[in-house]
TrEMBL record:
The chain crosses the membrane at residues 30-50, 62-84, 105-133, 139-163, 175-193, 229-251. Residues 28-254 form the ABC transmembrane type-2 domain. Keywords: Cell membrane, Membrane, Transmembrane, Transmembrane helix, Transport. It comes from the Bacteria. It is found in: Cell membrane; Membrane. InterPro entries: ABC2_TM, ABC2_TM_bact-type, ABC_2_transport, Nod_factor_ABC_transporter. The keyword tRNA processing does not apply. This is Transport permease protein. Pfam families: ABC2_membrane.
């Protein structure tokens, strides 16, 4: 027990390295996570962008925050898949028989999700710059954007942990992400909510993605964020805490 406590961070770094090697060796994962949102961004900007009225001539500036959230939602499905495969292969049981921290393997998956999604977000922003994205945000605003995206990633990752540990099949482990990927389409990510029918608009304006997208868009454009920032943070932190509590309960029960 003493060894486990003293070497938690070193154990976790080893598990992080293990999970990251799985990412780098699986090119289809990298391609899917990066290229699908990029293809969607290209489609909306160059095919649909001319017909969508958002009050700005540069549609990619309006669109980018929603694309980033879709990329993260796509990426965390692989976290659930990798956790499910480790459960099926008895990897957690093997690790628990060794003198390492009990939760180190789990945290390795969580941090891998954070790093992998950060890389995907960076790649997508670079592509958006080529497509004409421009930002007047200062350093503090960019740090705030990074913080919100990190919190959003962690919130969805802990949901992925629940799915990965509880699923009975590979399809079940990754299918949970589909509703999350769909949420940005019923939000202000692609069009202003004012253009939606009343019932759809009411849902769009009161779901977490709209507040997060609006906060990111205001920060990137150098505008006043207002209450959207605090609403976005409240959604991210709230979801993360609830998901973390349930994920740890499932982890203790299953492992």
């Amino acid at each position: 027990m003493e060894t486990t406590k003293n070497h938690f961070f070193s154990d976790m770094s080893v598990m992080l390295g293990r999970s990251m090697r799985h990412i780098t060796r699986s090119m289809d994962t990298i391609i899917t996570v990066c290229l699908t949102p990029i293809a969607m961004m290209l489609l909306f900007v160059y095919v649909f962008g001319g017909a969508i009225k958002v009050g700005t001539d540069n549609y990619v500036n309006y669109l980018l925050p929603g694309i980033l959230l879709i990329a993260i939602a796509t990426g965390i499905s692989y976290t659930a898949y990798r956790l499910f495969m480790d459960m099926q292969r008895g990897i957690f049981e093997r690790f628990n028989s060794m003198p390492i921290a009990r939760s180190a393997a789990l945290w390795g998956h969580v941090l891998t999700s954070l790093v992998a999604n950060a890389i995907s977000v960076a790649v997508i922003i670079l592509v958006a710059l080529v497509m004409g994205f421009r930002s007047t945000a200062g350093i503090l605003s960019w740090l705030a954007v990074a913080g919100i995206l990190a919190l959003f990633t962690l919130a969805l990752t802990w949901i992925a942990v629940i799915a990965g540990l509880s699923a009975k099949s590979v399809d079940g482990a990754s299918a949970f992400s589909y509703p999350i990927i769909f949420l940005p389409f019923i939000s202000s990510a692609f069009v202003p909510t004012e253009s939606m029918p009343p019932v759809v608009r009411a849902f769009a304006e009161n779901q977490p993605v709209t507040a997060i997208v609006d906060a990111l868009r205001a920060l990137l454009s150098g505008q006043q964020v207002g209450t959207n920032l605090w609403i976005a943070l409240a959604w991210c932190v709230g979801i993360m805490l609830v998901a973390y509590i349930f994920a740890m309960r499932v982890y203790k029960k299953r492992v």
